[in-house]
Automatic annotation (TrEMBL):
One Pfam family from the record: GSDH
Phylogenetic classification of the source organism: Eukaryota, Metazoa, Chordata, Craniata, Vertebrata
Protein name: HHIP-like protein 2
Predominant place of localization: secreted
Domain spans labelled Glucose/Sorbosone dehydrogenase: 191-333
Positions of the Folate receptor-like domain: 20-126
Family per record: Belongs to the HHIP family.
Amino acid sequence: MSGMMLVLVKPLSAHPQCLDFEPPFKPPSHLEFCTQYELFGCCDQDSDNTIAERYWDVIDQLDTAGHELCEDMLKEIMCQECSPYAAHLYDAEDPYTPVRELPGLCLAYCSEFHGKCRHVVQYLTENQPLRDAAERDASAFCSLADLSDRDYCYPNVLKSPGLNSNLGQVAEDPEGCLQVCLTEVANSLRNPVLMLHGGDGTHRMFVAEQLGFVWVYLRDGSRLEQPFLDMSGEVITTPWLGDERGFLGMAFHPEYRVNGRFFIYYSIQVNNEPEKVRVSEMKVSAHDMNMADPHSERTILEIVEPAANHNGGQLLFGLDGCLYIFTGDGGKAGDPFGQFGNAQNK
């Protein structure tokens, strides 16, 4: 590479996520309890009802003065499971620590909560240190209720422009879809490994199968009868579920519309030699834009890959016009061969 690019980014980047690690959504029906999240959040009606039941179970444990003092803050805290930032509030993204039973609380709010609601902590968590701290003093309790990433503590997470601008502003399409909608465009394929277009304005999609076939799909969704490219006689692969060899990558030259050049990446074995991955340049037929010229292959690179997995395969053109080749890391449980491809080899 001839240079480096420095990109300045905002110090805070919104990352909404639910406790089940799924994205937030618009509930399909009205929420009766955690109504502040009925337009966009992490709860459907069932989970909302479950939180409400738990809330009333806690309220039933309190005397009149206790629940009148604490009921609003208690509801706010329990409803954070429905927040679009629930995974952050409950520190669920750290795989080395258990998910919190209470959301992370900002200091000022935590102090107020402790003053009004310390008597309910015992009903909200089985965490004995947190229970003991609540009985001791606000400082000890709020130290444990704090979040390492304070951008996401409650209620400041609701006030941050960086976290809330455009949050949940999802426009319906003509069919009423509010989330990522999938439309089937192809079927009856055998291990499809990639789909891309040539950037030539024809709106054709090229779909490759691991076996070595590349098919052309037209704008109306129909597939041409003959493959654009048939490398099945060259490619090595098997029906074995864990076999990651085969036709693995393809990229069209940025000027494909003009020069008809494209590049392929596939597994190959010749004359009982060690298995390899090969990167080649090819050209489209001069007579049919839906057929590759089978005699145009020019080998650019071959790398020994003795394992049947982790063979890489991605080919991408960068903005600099260079072709980037991703070759995998050796495979077979840490590259026991010792010299082929492992990224840790120096």
